[in-house]
From TrEMBL:
A Pfam family the protein falls into: Aminoglyc_resit
Xref: InterPro entries: Aminoglyc_AdlTrfase
GO molecular function: nucleotidyltransferase activity
Family annotation (Gene3D superfamilies): 3.30.460.40
Region (Disordered) location: 154-181
Protein name, as recorded: Aminoglycoside-2''-adenylyltransferase
Keywords: Nucleotidyltransferase, Transferase
Amino acid sequence: MHGLTRRQLASIAEVVGVAGAAGIPVWLRGGWAMDFQLGAVTRPHVDVDWYCWHEDANRLATLLLARDWRLDPRMPVTTQLDLFTADVEASFAYLGRDSDGRPTVGGGPWVGTPLPAGMLDAPPGRIGALTVPTISVAAQIEFKQMYPVWMPERPRRSKDADDLALLRAVSGRSGPRTPRP
């Protein structure tokens, strides 16, 4: 395992520890969520992607900034919270809730858009001794499958196709998902 991967795993453990001690729920998303659901690091990752409730973001930022994390000056905090610790980049996409309490996109141009049902109900993932909340495998598949449809300017990358194959194998699901509005 190379150095950046070790530092990313350490940052994941730190976020889970800090957020957990403060009662702030967080969920891994993206490539690291897949790896934690598979139980192994499958490839190098550029960054660590998370979800947090929008109303918890300022408190989470304050706690991490006190531990020498720093804000990414390139990204507006209105869309998501982007932080660095050393050379590890972490982004916290905001979650909102609809009138029935179901999760929605919590910031940016898609605010209020419903997110996949059951997305936050997955069992925690594990790599070695580290156990971390993640979004569900079904939601991971939907996101990987639909990003090029929702955002045509973001074509599917080869790593996304590889991730889809791994996620489908672990879920036993291979059929297409219904496009979301």
